[in-house]
Amino acid sequence: MNKRFLQRNTAMASLAAASFLVAAQASAWTLKEAAAPYSGTTIHAIFLDRPGYAAAEKLIPQFEKETGITIKWDVVPYESTRQKEVLNFVSGGAQDIVLVDVVWIGEFASNKWLVPIKKFTDDPKLADPNLNLKGFFPILLDSFGTWDKVTYGLPFDNYSGLMFYNKCTLKQAGFDEPPKTWDDLLNVYAPKLTNASKNQYAFALQSRRGETQSADSFMRMLWPNGGSLLDAKFKSNLMSPQSQAGLEYRQKLMKYMPPGIVDYDHAEAVNALAQGQVAMITEWSAFYPTLTDPSKSKLGNCLGIATEPRGPAGLKPALGGFSLAVNAKASAKKQAAAWLFIQWITSEQMAKPYLEAGGVPARMAVYKDPAVEQKYPFVKPMVESWQGGVPDYRPRFPEWPAISEIIGEWGTKMMLGEVSVKDGAQTIGSKMEGILQKAGYYDGKKPLLK
């Protein structure tokens, strides 16, 4: 018999055996059996008062029934979440599942507060063979769950900045579609959609002091204009012509926004559109359920959704969201139970139930279903935004919270006219570089890019 023929058949037999083994392992693993050693365990989490968490709450009883593991959560305002979690890390408080904002992961991982998921994915008793990390949108897994090439968390509450608008109001003003560029929004749409005497405004840009000011307002105007917070050497880039153009644009747009816009957080901006006070907002995709809830919104069939407008630098939408990770200071038993929940709630299997409950899953497969795209009109612009978004929309290094506070203060002063855009940008840049200098980014103690 031909030797090459024998070698080929031997290789094929080995491959078939290996495939059979993998298939057998996949069919053998069940959540119920994996969770059996942890039945009766209670694990604690922090949730936000947002649709994605309400969606998870609807599904949790299914997990508890299957596993015998109890999930308890505290609903905490976003502005207090990081502080509460850090306090728990330091004091040993009850926190097994860690909610990790995209801009907290550098701080949490660098302090060794999170368990790398490799600890669990390398354990055949805990790792679901169908986990499929490649099934997540790469920009989400990399941005929300990964730091310094190590994955700590899985994307859970996932956001892209989108344009939500009132189709009926735009049509009455003579527009059949939303503005495709920021320039058109300011110069063509806004004047026709604003009537201050009737408390009607074209646009609301959530800008409350804090992370909302720094990320949802300030940073949102930099990228589309070709600007950025930092240059390649981690020096301030706020005085570049592009960054200055973006911040000056925001000042011009303010006259078409409701008075007191610097006190608008997400809830106020969403409500202004929902109740007909403004015609357009750029907000996170996660607020779609709120805007389609008849008890909270008057929009009905008038709700329109598109990508954020394009700027001179193209489509550069806001990127935000969270991952769920395991607390490194929790007991081994609680760590395992927490991982099983995280793996389950972010799985491909649960992606559609999570979406139908009001969440926004990070799994690519669920959005390939034409029926899903038809049922949820935010899906198409959201996927387009994720495919062409800005991974470093906000810096993820540990110093971001301190820098965010500076931007929150001086960005607000800019909007109020207490300082000029130029002076405010110079102040932010100087204070920011002081923080980075102290942290060691300029003397080689820390790498410039992660």
From TrEMBL:
Enumerate the InterPro entries for this protein.
Bact_solute-bd_prot1, SBP
Q: Does the keyword Mitochondrion apply?
A: no
Q: What Pfam families does this protein's entry cite? A: SBP_bac_1 (PF01547)
What do the Gene Ontology cellular component annotations say? periplasmic space
Q: Which SUPFAM superfamilies match?
A: Periplasmic binding protein-like II (SSF53850)
Q: Any idea which UniProt keywords this protein has?
A: Signal, Transport
Family of the protein in this entry = Belongs to the bacterial solute-binding protein 1 family.
Name recorded for this polypeptide: Sugar ABC transporter
